[in-house]
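Appendix B: complex inputs.
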Amino acid sequence: MDPLSPDNIDALARQALDDSVEHLDGYTLSRLNQARKLALEHSAQPRHWTMERWLPAAAASSLAAVLIVMLLLPGEPTTEASLHFADIVEAEPAFVAMEDPELLEDLDMMLWLLDEESHAS
Amino acid sequence: MDEFLRDIERRALRMAEFSTGNRDDGLEIVQEAMLGLVKRYSSRPANEWKPLFYRILQSRINDWHRRQKVRNRVMSVVHWVKGDEDDSPVDIVEQAPASYHSNPDDAIQLSLKTEVMIKAIGQLPKRQQQAFMLRAWEGLSVAQTAAAMTCSQGSVKTHYSRAVHTLRDKIEDED
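Resulting structure:
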């Protein structure tokens, strides 16, 4: 077997990366521990994907139309849909006016998850 | 969720640290990603957490690079106003990340081969590095990696392939 074949490069890289994180210093481990505990304290309430909760009516109906179109796109629906979604969101005044990057990230993620579910079924 | 975060935290830190060249910034990014995942997606099925987490992590890393770019531009203007000789703006977003050096506080001296590989990965262009680490180390599928990196699956394959070739060349040079 070629020692520098892609599979071997992968294996060498994985081993090297695993070794590099095996013995992190105490300060770093403590920071990671704190980060994890802080995150878990904010364990979410189940999210309700109701558009009315966030969106004005105009943006909600625009979003519904966007999602339907995105899921019908041919080709590579998952990432292509997300990329098209980003373009459409930027052009839609109702979305631009919201200026909430977390919300836009949520919407983009929701689209991807819906697409994953439709592929799985 | 606790078990998931425990399993993923070290790899996530390494990825963030490679990208920023700085452990403290890497730690902050990992903290933000953990918080983002738990606050917004803990109700999702557990098999979705990994790609979701890395999507958030990459987003935070990109935010960091954007802030650095703005900061560098501001500093360039400051230098220009002050009449400093070197006033060329530094665009760090697309540059290869700074050479990665193992943290001197870490408890073990890595073997030479490991150091060579780690250094080589650290020197990969950002997108190649992301694709390679998500695919080869974290084991994400091409589709999941594309979602995490917000690019096409074709781009993932290209970045990954180039990363492998670059790493092979560097390893060969060291032998």
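Chain A has six helices and no strands.
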